[in-house]
Inverse folding.
């Protein structure tokens, strides 16, 4: 039995699941998941019932032949497998929650998706643990979930700089910086443009959450690596399995090596995005439109990504330096199921 079919069937053995629940029980892209569901249905190993997907007796028999058992969740129930406890920076978290409430709401125009306040503090804790925070100059390319503010609230970085295409976010970060007397600066910037000279080779650490196309990843990571000072500088970014097949991961990893970056750490499902409620049903996302069963609004943070740390082993070698003239394909490919076409 192939691994994806196993993950699906053993999850369904415990109880019928809806699309959102099943997506997080397997680790392939959504397009491949939907194709596999149709295959399992044709083989009569599963069946659809309303908004639920159920295993059949034939499916259970197939699992028993495979020496399988119903799925057991072995993750820590306290931190949901995240490792880091945001209560260690309780004061930062409480202040940030107040700031976060008034943030500009995310927009599909720029493929924005935000993580929770706790998730941003967990990012801070991981970067702190790895030694990439204290006394460092930190560069954020895009920051619709305002994680940069959490970093500045810690008072540990020497300098925090944010560049973002969304002027609402830039203005809000600068407003918060002034009100809370933080060492953070935000500037309007489109990643399709060449990076300004004042940001080139000036930073110790970068953070970004790129759009999940090969072109998008290459562009965002190029701009970020161009901002780094040199050997030993580090970076952090998110990459999901939901919209990135292993083939796409392969291409991204090749680009990282070409840029003199090596992966040092990967925290699976570390980033949880607030893609919940009725709104997601009306954005034209393929995850809803191509689903094999009826889709109801998600009630939990189902979209996750792996948080990846990279480090320069030599001089920074961005694959893209000059400006590019790319269209909507920067945001969208045939695996993109949670971006408006």
């Amino acid at each position: 039995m192939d691994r994806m079919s196993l993950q699906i069937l053993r999850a369904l053995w415990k109880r019928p699941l809806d699309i959102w629940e099943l997506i997080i029980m397997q680790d392939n892209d959504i397009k491949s998941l939907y194709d596999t569901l149709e295959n399992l249905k044709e083989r009569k190993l599963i069946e659809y019932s309303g908004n639920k997907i159920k295993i059949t007796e034939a499916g259970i028999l197939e699992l028993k032949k495979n020496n399988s058992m119903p799925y057991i969740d072995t993750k820590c129930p306290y931190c949901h497998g995240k490792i880091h406890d945001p209560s260690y920076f309780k004061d930062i978290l409480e202040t940030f929650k107040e700031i976060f409430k008034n943030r500009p709401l995310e927009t599909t125009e720029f493929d924005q998706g935000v993580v929770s306040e706790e998730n941003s503090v967990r990012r801070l804790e991981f970067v702190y643990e790895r030694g990439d925070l204290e006394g460092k100059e930190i560069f954020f390319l895009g920051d619709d979930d305002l994680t940069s503010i959490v970093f500045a609230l810690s008072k540990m970085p020497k300098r925090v700089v944010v560049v973002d295409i969304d002027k609402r976010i830039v203005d809000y970060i600068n407003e918060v910086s002034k009100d809370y007397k933080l060492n953070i600066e935000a500037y309007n910037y489109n990643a399709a443009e060449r990076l300004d000279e004042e940001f080139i080779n000036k930073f110790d650490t970068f953070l970004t959450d790129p759009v999940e196309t090969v072109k998008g990843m290459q562009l965002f990571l190029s701009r970020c690596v161009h901002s780094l000072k040199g050997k030993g500088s580090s970076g952090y970014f998110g990459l999901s399995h939901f919209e990135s097949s292993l083939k796409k991961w392969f291409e991204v990893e090749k680009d990282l090596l070409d840029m003199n970056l090596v992966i040092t750490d990967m925290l699976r499902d570390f980033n949880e995005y607030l893609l919940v409620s009725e709104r997601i049903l009306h954005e034209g996302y393929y995850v809803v439109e191509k689903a094999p069963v009826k889709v109801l609004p998600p009630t939990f943070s189902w979209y996750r990504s792996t948080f990846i740390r990279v480090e320069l082993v030599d001089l920074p070698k961005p694959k893209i330096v000059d400006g590019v003239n790319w269209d909507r394909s920067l945001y969208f490919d045939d695996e993109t199921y949670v971006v408006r076409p």
Observations:
- Residues 167-180 form the longest helix (14 residues).
- The chain has a mean pLDDT of 93.
- The chain is about 35% helix and 15% strand.
